[in-house]
Amino acid sequence: MPDMEVENSSVSKAEELKVLANGAFKANKFSQAIDLYSQAIEINGQNAVYWANRAFAHSKLEEYGSAIQDASKAIEIDPKYSKGYYRRGAAYLAMGKFKDALKDFQQVKKLCPNDPDAAKKVKECEKAVKKLKFEEAIAFPESERRSIADSIDYHSIEVEPQYSGARIEGDVITLDFVKKMMDDFKNQKCLHKRYAFQIVLQTRDMLRALPSLVDIDIPDGNHFTVCGDVHGQFYDLLNIFELNGLPSEENPYLFNGDFVDRGSFSLEVILTLFAFKCMCPSAIYLSRGNHESKSMNKIYGFEGEVRSKLSETFVELFAEVFCCLPLAHVLNKKVFVVHGGLFSVDGVKLSDIRAIDRFCEPPEEGLMCELLWSDPQPLPGRGPSKRGVGLSFGADVTKRFLQDNNLDLVVRSHEVKDEGYEIEHDGKLITVFSAPNYCDQMGNKGAFIRFEAPDLKPNIVTFSAVPHPDVKPMAYANNFLRMFS
Known about the structure:
By secondary structure, this protein is α/β, with parallel strands linked by helices. The protein is built from 18 helices and 14 strands.
């Protein structure tokens, strides 16, 4: 009898933790929810609901690898539990793995034959898989592909007399033009496609000439600002410039990837950053993030936004230009700045990064993939990625990489942080994230880092989100993905 009582009290304790976790989830405190679901799982690991709920919380933090693992465990415990398949399907979908997602949603439909929602999702998924097969069938091999940029002559595009927005006179992009363009964007006006083509094509020429690893020299007495993910949050980008000044030779910036997707003002963000690059190449440096890729843009909104605001040609052009973005930067031979993180092998030298042929869509493994996708972990050594791509690496990996390359610090982005930043790995690694209240729901602050030469001590500035017009995040995203968020 006493054993039964202990068991009952354990079950009720686990249920209490689940209720608390559900509350944290509703309050958008997803890390806290994961922690509470984990405690419930420790007490009662045979409850499929706890695993599926934790999978959902992982998905909210974009930890799709962990979400797939948890949902698979829920299915293993209860093969008839439809929510397990549903959560796993949604995580596969978020990673662009449509065929795997389809299998799971078909299973949901089988288990819930009268559920109209399940039937709808299977239909959408079948459509996505069919579209993917068609695109693969008509795609040219990489070697035969012609550059879309070579077919565009922006000089021949006429600007209608009634157009009242920002104009570029001749070939030179000036500060006055950029200010007027930002003001137009702020008032939700569009830029004429002639000037949009000009900005993107000029940026392409500049980026193509750069190495895969860019060395930046900051003279003594000068400062340099590093920003993390902006994710289409244009009004927060304007706020960064308000707080820290516009980019210029005296006030240079590095934006560390993930300029687009999620937020619904991604086009405004990318054209602003590119225009500053054209105006003064040493005023702004741009690094590739995992969202500067076709597969992500197809799912998370940028492709739909560009198609809606400009045209299909621009979709192709941006994809091509994103392949020209450098992969990492080094400040004064001391600070290594990269979007994601470090590597699955020891001994990687800066020269290895310089030697990467980056002019392609990111591969699913190897140095380029790891630079864009990896994350730090608290434990030493290396572990599987919670995202399902790249890996997790510990303080010992960071320390060894810095020693091998005679560097002092790693700065990376890629992960939302409550305070906009986090210092880890014995102070040798800083994450900086510059999209406050990410996706209008995370409640986090944004941050940027100012470095002063010669000592390059990081001075971290945090800021809160500012209001933006009533356009929801993911407004242009793949319809199908919006059904699951």
